[in-house]
Amino acid sequence: MIPGPVPAATEDNTERISRAVRALYEGGVGGPVSTSSTPVTDNAIVRWDGTDGRTVQGSLVTLDDSGNVSASGTLTVAQIITPSQPCFSANKNATDQTGIADNTFTKITFTTEEFDVGGFYDAANSKWTPPSGKNMIIGSVRLNSGVDQQIAFISIYKNGSRYRDIVAVTMSGASFAPATQGVAIDSANGSDFYELFFLTTGGGTHSVSGLVSGTYFQGFFLG
After folding, report:
1. Do both 63 and 102 map to the same domain?
2. From 154, 158, 163, 179, which residue has the greatest number of CB atoms within 10 Å?
3. Above 50 in pLDDT, residue 1?
4. How buried is 29 (Cβ within 10 angstroms: 0-12 exposed, 13-18 middle, 19+ buried)?
5. CA angle centred on 216, ends 212 and 221, rounded to 5°
6. Is residue 6 part of a domain?
7. What percentage of residues in the chain have a pLDDT greater than 70?
8. What is the rounded distance in angstroms from the CA atom of residue 189 to the CA atom of residue 202?
9. Residue 77 belongs to some domain of the structure
10. Which pLDDT value is given to residue 11?
11. Residues 6 or more apart from 119 whose CB is under 8 A from it?
12. Are residues 135 and 177 in the same domain?
C-alpha cells in the first residue's frame, strides 16, 4: 500500500501517523510527513527516494485533477513522436486539361488524390481548406507545348481571389513546353480555401499536361 501525505503530528492525527509507520515496517512504502517547514505539495508526482523501493519523496512536477501537468527545469527525452499533420497531394492522373484560353486565368483541376491526411482536400472541387494556422501551398503546372518567349505563370488563389503569383518565361528561341512551380506560406483561419489557377500567352488555346510528375497541387499544415 502507498499511504497518502501524512499531516503534521497532532493529537487528532496520531492514529494516521501510526498507520503510516506500520505500513513502512510491514513492507509498504512510506513518504515524508508534512510539516510547516517542509509541507507536502498537493498534486505533486512522487518519486523513489533511494534504491530500496520503500521510500518515496515529492517532486516539482504536479498533476492536477484536470490532467494538467506543470513542471520546472529541463525535460530530456530520447524521441518525440508527433501526430500526423494535415497534408495532401493531388494530380491530374495523366489526363490533359485542354481548351485553356490565351492570357486568361483558368482554374486547374486536380481530381486524383495521392493522399489526404485529415480529409481537408476537396478533390471534386479541387480546393484545400486547411485547419486554422500556418500552411504551405505548393503548385506545379506544365504545358504540352510552348512558343518563343512564352509567359506562363500559376497563381495560388485564396477564397476565390489571386493571392500569390509565380511567373516563368521561355527563353528567346526556345520552343519547349514551359513548366511553372511555386510555393506560398499563409495563415489560414480554418475556413479559408486555396485553389490553383494558370495563365499563359502565345496565342490560340493551350493544353496543360496531365503528367503526374509535372502538374500537381499539394499542401501541408505547418501548425
Report:
1. no
2. 154
3. no
4. middle
5. 135
6. no
7. 75
8. 38
9. no
10. 46
11. none
12. yes
113 plus 205 within the same structural domain = yes
What's the length of the chain? 223
Same domain, 60 and 125: no
DSSP-derived letter for residue 34 is P
Same domain membership, residue 151 and residue 183? yes
Contact by Cβ (8 Å): 123, 219: no
Q: pLDDT: is 96 or 40 the higher one? A: 96
Query: Which residue in the block uniquely carries the three cell numbers 500552411?
Result: 135
Do both 92 and 201 map to the same domain? yes
Q: Does residue 82 sit within a domain?
A: no
The total of structural domains in the chain comes to 2
Residue 3 lies in a domain: no
Residues 145 and 215 in one domain: yes
Q: Are 223 and 83 in contact, with CB atoms under 8 Å apart?
A: no
Cell numbers standing for residue 134: 500556418
Which amino acid would we find at residue 213? Answer: S
Nearest-angstrom CA–CA distance, 22 and 14: 12
**pTM attached to this predicted model:** 0.64
Tens digit of each residue's pLDDT (9 = 90 or more) over 113-122 = 999 999 999 9
Q: Give the pLDDT confidence score for residue 139 in this predicted structure.
A: 94
Spatial neighbors of 59 by CB under 8 A, at least 6 apart, are 44, 45, 46, 47
| Structural domain harbouring 54 | 14-70
CA–CA distance, 86 with 103 (Å, rounded to integer): 34
* Mean pLDDT of the residues in the chain: 82
Question: Do residues 57 and 110 both lie within one domain?
Answer: no
- The per-residue pLDDT for range 151-186, each reduced to its tens digit, is 788 899 999 999 998 877 664 555 556 678 889 999
User: H or E stretch including 23?
Assistant: helix 14-25
Distance CA 9, CA 33 (A): 8
